[in-house]
User: Fold this.
Amino acid sequence: MTTPDHRPAPASPAPFQALMDQVTAGAERFGHRQHIHLTWLAVRRYGTAGAVGLVSDGIQRTARYAGVPQKYNATVSRAWVELVGHHAAHHGAATFDAFAVRHPVLLDKRLLTRFYRPATLASPRARAAWVEPDLTPFPWQQQNH
Assistant:
């Protein structure tokens, strides 16, 4: 199976775990910055389309394993991957630290509230499946209007 940009899509939990291991190797905790780092690595290795599935499936499995499956949100997961992918495609960087310096907005956990109402993100529909932004389109959507 390949992604739309012809990179192989991960077929097992192993690729997500490898990314987790890489990101958590020197980290004291797994916070928002580490989520963005993992997402950046996934986008670089599998393209944005492949990273959406990899990251979403990995987070959903992790939440189930931790006994908190209700914490998984399909819209939030995909939105972050697409935001990181958009920034990486237009202004790449050789290292994650350089990427983070160039795109500090991605380190703001509240970034999605620019695009979504909190009630929309908290809805059962957004938790289960992709929901389009309801406040303002994403940057790449604005370019198409």
